[in-house]
Amino acid sequence: MVTIYDIAKKANVSPMTVSRVINNSGNIRLTTREKVEKAIKELGYVPNSAARSLTSNQTKTLGLILTDISNPFFSKIARGAEDAAVEVGYRVLMSNTDEDSEKEINYIDMMLSARVDGVLIAPTSDKSLDQIKRLRDHNIPAVLIDRTIEGFMGDYVLGDSYEGSRKLVEHLIDYGHRNIALINGPSNVSTARERQRGYLETLKLNDLPVHENYISEIDFKSVQAGNTQSIVEQLMQLNEKKRPTAIFAANNFIAISVMKALKELGLHVPEDISVVCFDEVEPVVYFDPFFTVAAQPASELGRIGIQFLIERVEQKNVDQERKIILPPDIHIRKSTRRMK
Amino acid sequence: MVTIYDIAKKANVSPMTVSRVINNSGNIRLTTREKVEKAIKELGYVPNSAARSLTSNQTKTLGLILTDISNPFFSKIARGAEDAAVEVGYRVLMSNTDEDSEKEINYIDMMLSARVDGVLIAPTSDKSLDQIKRLRDHNIPAVLIDRTIEGFMGDYVLGDSYEGSRKLVEHLIDYGHRNIALINGPSNVSTARERQRGYLETLKLNDLPVHENYISEIDFKSVQAGNTQSIVEQLMQLNEKKRPTAIFAANNFIAISVMKALKELGLHVPEDISVVCFDEVEPVVYFDPFFTVAAQPASELGRIGIQFLIERVEQKNVDQERKIILPPDIHIRKSTRRMK
DNA sequence: TAATTTTATGTTACCGGTAACCGAAAGCGC
DNA sequence: GCGCTTTCGGTTACCGGTAACATAAAATTA
Questions:
Q1: Which of A140, A319, B40, B309 is 20 to 30 A from B10, alpha carbon to alpha carbon?
Q2: What is the pLDDT along chain B (340 residues), one digit of tens a residue?
Q3: C-alpha B172: how far from chain center
């Protein structure tokens, strides 16, 4: 591998001069610079980041810890994040926790040994706080994305789960629905809690009773989750007065498994029952917008998250904690219908 | 930041002993090992990969160069790749070229300076060969994924575009279609060429004429591509005898923009026209399988690609070039119908 | 018990850069 | 022509590990 020493020898200067040319630091005579640049080109030299980071104490690398990039919501976050990072000269290491705190721990280890300059993370649960503290102990700033965790002090970038939830339920009520079930994600994830809060408060504000068995909890991610089937069946078996006329699915994946379950029961959406959810259902939305959703600006979340992170890394605006909460866009489409 | 020197001091041994404990190399007395491990735990030491890679000449990091992880096909590849890499102790740096060779060059530079041990790449076009050569010059193995490029010598992992294409067209012909249009990706991408070859040969084998204006080329990625509209309009303006009764879209994104274009023309699928495409249209397929597609095992492609790459990195099986071509699954669904 | 081998640990140098310091050459004022 | 300031470039040491070699202590053998 070509090093600055090879360049130095070829250009007949000291390695330090080569370093100076590369980093545009210090005073270098034009003729010397040209000699060195010629040698660099001829030998195809590329600086060794590892060596550089050893003295500079920064790697120009950021860690991205998400639950699953094959989930369109997260892949958009990842894309926005990567774009923002590259624009200002950072690399991105990616990882997928699958909502599993064991995996999360391992990835944090990986990020630590890679000496990333910062981490953008969608924590698996409140227990993640310990892991983030571990980063802190090593002076690695972390910015939370999509989810908060109790006790975390620092920046975060979120979609407004509460507000989106309120508007979705408001819309259903507006359409004449009174029996609205919520199929939520796990309550140890903040977005699930917020969506439930929005759901409950909106019902209350509209003087609608809350039925205990209207609320259930499943995994946020498994599209083919078997338990959705039984949850939906139970809801549909309630007597006519109590049977929900609308289901609020806490995210797009849950919505899809709900659709599947309803289909198996021979029910049609929206004729027999309305369905709303969080997050866009891509890419069908482009030619056949079907779901009434609260669409979150995922790519924007990723972009802002990285911007915040880099500001922390580079010690700008260290004075305050910033909490950006981006409102979702409510798109009323064909999965909801007005009650007669 | 805690180093082995801090550990050494605390445990009252030499740094080398600490290194040996960490790497399980050499002979260490049990009591010494325990002393050192205690110190490591107490100080929360994590090895510095950069320093390590400086002597070992490997970073345990792989580069993943794809066109766009927010495209479900590539995000699945990325997921499969990341999983396979982590399983054997490698990290993954990700990047998105957007089919842009400029960006590709920059990312190759990034990978070079990061001294990744290997690169898994979906090249933007045949011109990418120069970039891959640049990696070679630095002794960094590259494995191609999804696409081949002319003149490349090495491993690659592909979906069988030719075979998938043949089967899709075969299916359309079987359903009685005679006028089949192809809306292809750019011909400087191998998958587009292969899909066109499959299309042409299948027509020929069935003694169907090829109309020049049945074949058009657009971008592989922009869902909202304006030019799809005009292409579809032109096809639909052909006189009744020549007007295509089926469109073969070269990938899922093109299919979606075709659907949109057809919709704007007031045409229904499959009543007025049939549509087939490459790649699954996720995640709707789980509750409402609509498109007749040639589904590629994306995650599997990523996984195998990384396996091949790591074997190259670790110098196993260096003797031969391996070319894995995974067959797509043809799913006949509702976007195609039998001609009367 | 002395010689020899094995085990356990330390010392030194190096990986590829860069910060900090230093000195020669060139420019400048008088 | 002499002293002073800039400009330009070199030397040295260090970042945090590890390979290679060296050596002390313990175990084995003669």
A1: A140
A2: 899 999 999 999 999 999 999 999 889 999 999 999 999 999 999 999 999 999 999 999 999 999 999 988 999 999 999 999 999 999 999 999 999 999 999 999 999 999 999 999 999 988 999 999 999 999 999 999 999 999 999 999 999 999 999 999 999 999 999 999 999 999 989 999 999 999 999 999 999 988 888 999 888 776 555 688 888 888 888 887 888 999 999 998 889 889 888 888 889 888 999 999 999 887 666 667 789 999 999 999 999 999 999 999 998 766 788 999 999 999 999 899 998 7
A3: 27
**Distance, Å, B153 CA → D23 C1':** 51
CATH of A161-295, one of 3.40.1400.10, 3.30.70.1290, 3.40.50.1220, 3.40.50.2300: 3.40.50.2300
Spell out which residues of chain A touch residue B47, defining contact as CB-CB under 8 Å. 113
Question: Please, where in chain B does CATH 3.40.50.2300 lie?
Answer: 59-159+298-326, 161-295
Residues in chain A: 340
Coil vs helix vs strand at A290 = coil
Report CB contact under 8 Å: A138, B110.
Answer: no
Alpha helices in chain A (DSSP H): 4-11, 15-23, 30-43, 49-56, 72-87, 101-113, 128-137, 161-174, 190-205, 226-237, 252-264, 298-313
> Is A246 in a helix, a strand, or coil?
strand
DSSP 3-state of A61: strand
Residues 296-315 of B with CB under 8 A from A: 299
What lies within 8 Å, CB to CB, of A305 at 6+ separation is: A77, A80, A81, A120, A143, A145, A157
CB atoms A46 and B113 under 8 Å: yes
CB-contacted nucleotides of strand C (7 Å)? 7-12, 14-20
- How many A-B residue pairs are in contact by the CB < 8 A criterion? 160
Q: Which CATH architecture has domain A59-159+298-326?
A: 3-Layer(aba) Sandwich (3.40)
- Scanning every residue of chain B, which has its alpha carbon at the shortest distance from the alpha carbon of A56? B50
Please give the CATH number for the structural domain made up of B4-47.
1.10.260.40
